[in-house]
Amino acid sequence: MRSLPLPLALAARLLPVAVLASAGWALTSGPFAATPTAEHKPAQKETSTASAPSTSAATKTYATSPAPCDGVTEATVKSLVPGAKTAGQEIASTDKSVRRTCSWNALKGFDYRWLDVSYEIKESDETAQKSYEGRVEDKSGGGAVPGLGDSAYSVVNLTTENKQQTREGVVIVRASNALVVVTYNGSDFETKKAPSTDEINKGAIKAAKDAVATLEKSQ
């Protein structure tokens, strides 16, 4: 059996992923808003009962990210990334309490598939919503995914490099103060064609549903 050399586009994708991920995450590790200082009133004379200090700190639904490589089921990994190790590979993060990502990829025959699942924990629902809206704006051309998290969005794009097509789907979900981002793409190195939009979109949404369910069970 003759071996199939990976195209330059694939090699370029694989080699810098950890470096780019670490650099990007260092910039998006979540807002660090200063906690308002409580106002102290002067003590009243002849007051026998001291009132308890009030607090305005908001309660976060999700304090930490779940283990991302447990985010999708083994059955989902096998169906979306044939030939990949179901355990996945967690990408190094600057702060695992803020963002964690797991990746699966495999080349089976001439078909290549790549899946990323990322969890990001924000300081509040409002902060998560602003981040969600910004990402949706950056990835125009998609549509809402009903019934997933508090809000969800899916978009699929086709790129061509050296006559090799790659189709990539991205699903962004906000669930309270957490964001779940799934990236799923594929290529056929024999035909130079990419999988259909329907296949990639449904695959990305399937993984996103798994990942959100895992998030909900983690708390």
What is this entry, summarized?
By secondary structure, the chain is an alpha+beta fold. Helix content is 28%, strand content 27%.
Describe this structure in words.
With 219 residues, the protein is α+β, with helices and mostly antiparallel strands. The chain has a single domain, classed as Protein Transport Mog1p, Chain A (3-Layer(aba) Sandwich), CATH 3.40.1000. Helices cover 28% and strands 27% of the residues. It contains 5 helices and 7 strands. The chain has helices spanning 8-14, 17-27, 74-80, 125-138, 197-218; strands at 89-91, 99-108, 111-121, 143-144, 151-161, 164-175, 178-188. The N and C termini lie far apart (49 Å).
Number of domains: 1
Helix content estimate? 25-40%
Distance between the ends: 49 Å
Largest sheet: 7 strands, antiparallel
Low-pLDDT sequence parts: 1-56
What is the β-strand count? 7
Based on secondary structure, the structural category is alpha+beta
Give me the strand/helix succession: HHHEEEHEEEEH
Please work out how many helical segments DSSP would assign. Answer: 5
CATH topology: Protein Transport Mog1p, Chain A
Shape from CA axes?
Answer: globular
Q: How do the strands line up in the largest sheet?
A: 1-2-3-7-6-5-4
CATH class: Alpha Beta
Strand proportion, as a percent range, falls in 25-35%
Q: What is the radius of gyration computed over CA atoms, rounded to a whole number of angstroms?
A: 22 Å
Overall mean pLDDT stands at 81
The name of the CATH architecture is 3-Layer(aba) Sandwich
